[in-house]
Amino acid sequence: MAWFQVSFYSQCLSHSAYLNVLLPETASREKPVRTLYLLNGYRGDHTDWLLNTDVNGMSRTYNCAIVMPGGENSSYIDHAVSGIRYGEFVGKELVEFTRKMFPVLSTKREDTAIAGLSMGGYGALRNGLKYHETFGFVLPLSAGFMGPDSITNDVTRRHFEARYGDPAAWDTNEGNPDYLAKALVDSGAPLPKLYIACGYNDRLCVTNRAYHHYLDEIGFPHVYEEGPGSHEWSTWRWALPHALDFCGWYTENTFVNPMMVEMRDERYLGEQWKEAK
Questions:
Q1: Residue 130: partners with Cβ closer than 8 Å, 6 or more residues away
Q2: 101-117: pLDDT as tens digits
Q3: Of 148, 137, 139, 78, which is closest to residue 108 (Cα–Cα)?
């Protein structure tokens, strides 16, 4: 397993972007590997998944590269006022850069997935649907859905408008996952395979369930799953492997531990282990 810490100047962000990249040792130009673009949540950064989950083991188990950029509390969208293009960065610039920097990454749509938690779950959903020609799998986990109903005062209004623009135009806004999903279904274009997960103790479960029902109504095939846990890492530790299983990327472990021998001897075993098989 190789771990790369990368910094490059982003035209979309107008500053340097930082990311971590995990690359399995099986990767080669002759046998390109799949790629998971994995987004952090609000107040997180490009180290979150690396420090809080076993993404190293998942990269091996699912034989895929994992690219983890920083989200900078951006919601991973193109901001209406500043013009900084976080959505284009994730959906286009980052993909193009990593494929150029690491030519062992597959360029096939069916080998490319985007996932994230909370704000990153929303970012994965928004950009996976918008850049559906790039991402064959879209895997939002505990997605933090945004909409005009989040506006409660002048401060939240300014915050919303700076990112999304006019709240009155939300129905046709590219930050609106409802609009993106319906437009994609109506277009007749190939749909990405969509997996949505949320902890059933998470208050965001309400909006995730609502989106699941909306997708059923418009005929967008998907898998929706809930499990134990709130808005916390224990939830995302079970959800991400489930999402990768959904992709069908599991790879049978062929590693043989050279230190493995049979040394079991009843004389040295504690009582609690003697019945173990």
A1: 87, 91, 174, 180
A2: 999 999 999 999 999 99
A3: 137
